[in-house]
User: Which sequence fits this backbone?
């Protein structure tokens, strides 16, 4: 192998190693190191009555970032609650998607809206079942512990 190709291979390997090590470190910092074992099969999404993209809870845990946005299908909130929770939350009114801030300017506060995208920490707050989806996980990840952890203060650990 030529010297230049060897150098490219080594640099690529080092770069990949740094990225993977960063994920391992942040997973331990969040207090949920098992989250690295999730292989994103999405079986948990089938059981969630709110239509959450449940795998985003796990992604938030291994990146130690509760501000990741996740999708929702069946969550309804009053516009005032959505706006106060996160003005950048994506809501749907009459088939039109917009941020909660835009909707707050156009529509009355007591109007019910469908939430389409919200932060993981906010999704945990509005989850009444605290991880009913956990039972469908083929490798038995304790997703409920992430939801309860975020429900307390919106942070990991």
Assistant:
């Amino acid at each position: 192998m030529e010297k230049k190709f060897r150098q490219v291979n080594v640099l690529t390997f080092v770069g990949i190693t740094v990225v993977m090590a960063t994920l391992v470190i942040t997973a331990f910092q969040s207090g949920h190191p098992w989250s690295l074992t999730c292989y994103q099969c999405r079986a948990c999404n089938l059981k969630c009555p709110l239509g959450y993209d449940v795998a985003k809870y796990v992604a938030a845990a291994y990146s130690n970032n509760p501000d990741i946005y996740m999708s929702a299908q069946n969550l309804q909130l009053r516009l005032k609650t959505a706006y106060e929770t996160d003005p950048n939350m994506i809501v749907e009114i009459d088939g039109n998607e917009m941020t909660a801030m835009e909707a707050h300017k156009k529509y009355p506060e007591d109007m019910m809206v469908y939430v389409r995208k919200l932060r993981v920490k906010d999704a945990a707050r509005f989850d009444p079942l605290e991880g009913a989806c956990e039972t469908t996980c083929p490798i038995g990840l304790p997703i409920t512990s992430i939801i309860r952890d975020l429900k307390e203060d919106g942070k990991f650990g």
In short: Helices lie at 3-30, 55-63, 79-85, 100-106, 120-125, 143-153.
